[in-house]
Amino acid sequence: MDSRSFDVDAPRWDQSTFMGRLNHFFNVTDWRTVVLPDSRLDEAKALVAQCRGGSVPPGTTEEQLHYAKKLYDSAFHPDTGDRMNLIGRMSFQVPGGMAITGFMLQFYRTVPAVVFWQWVNQSFNALVNYTNRNAASPITPKQIGVAYVTATSTALATAVGLNLYTKKAPPLVARWVPFAAVASANCVNVPMMRQQEILNGIAVTDENGNKLGHSTRAAVKGITQVVVSRITMAAPGMIILPIIMQRMEKYKFMQRITVLHGPLQVLLVGGFLVFMVPAACSLFPQRCSMDVSKLEPQLRDSIVSRYGDAVQRVYFNKGL
Known about the structure:
two-stranded antiparallel sheet, 13 helices, 62% helix, globular, mainly alpha
């Protein structure tokens, strides 16, 4: 094919619409990509680089280029181009999230079990948040440690406190404690792991990618959207599944196979996450934007003095 006729970085679906983003994230969060060896991912990265350079190998089809870009987007950071750690990739959210969430929902009755699974979950979340941060804003090991400890402590305090408080509450209320802990911890984990963006701002550009400066308000907007997405991702499985399980456990056949309740919840959570991971990621565009008028005064005045009315909006990577 003529490499000049194919723009590998052009969105395959319209990113301005929810359905376009949903198709995109169904593509790049495909859990099947996590089983591919690094060598295959590196081949995909090399092919994407060749296409960008206008030198696609003879005989390469457009579908092969689309697949290479899918692998590249699923495994390499959009800011740095470095291969992300396996567990931190969004494509690992289904296998990783289904296992952890399933066991959180199963083992919610005793404090030791609650502590262990909330700790595992927050460790997983911290790694995901760090991996999918806006890499233009570096974070120190000390800040990572503080963020991890703070978020984990929040989750444990919420989970253990609610677990003790709901001892006399209806059984279903106790089953919802893990979600309350996860939601509250996400409100801490994401901002803390990405605190440098809030403190120093993130790079904002014009529509053509020309850097205009750094904005803390843009960082707050992007991180807020990520928090909403993460809570939305977990909500259906952690709210609806307890209702399903409580009703199913009344049947005699379920009472005979209590040892399988944990694995069953893992599989059911997986069913929710297959759809909710891409759906939650699609709530907001990854290339976020905001009006110049809503930026902090110093940056806004700088942009206006240089470009006048030519630049009305700024753009930035909100991360995932």
